[in-house]
Specification:
Blueprint lengths: L5 E5 L4 E5 L2 H15 L4 E4 L4 H10 L20
Antiparallel strand pairs: 1-2, 1-3
Length: 78
């Protein structure tokens, strides 16, 4: 049995779906947005430590306190 990797939630319609693959979760979010106009969000349950660190250094969370602006992975201000 595979572990749940992401849970997608839509607050507009109280829908909640669990996914074993991140690609399937992302596709669901895009399809749900196209069909309903709702902005569903996802919670990622399991990432390798290196992926989490790279995302943090790149600034993908959008919070300055967890962004390493001196990292070569830093994406810059949007």
């Amino acid at each position: 049995m595979t572990a749940t990797r992401a849970t997608v939630t839509c607050p507009d319609c109280d829908r909640r779906e669990a996914f074993d693959e991140l690609g399937a979760a992302r596709s669901f979010i895009e399809q749900h947005r196209d069909e309903t106009g709702h902005e569903a969000t996802w919670e990622l349950h399991r990432l390798d430590a290196g992926v989490e660190r790279a995302g943090r250094e790149a600034g993908v969370c959008g919070r300055s306190e967890c962004t390493a602006t001196d990292s070569p992975l830093y994406l810059g201000d949007p």
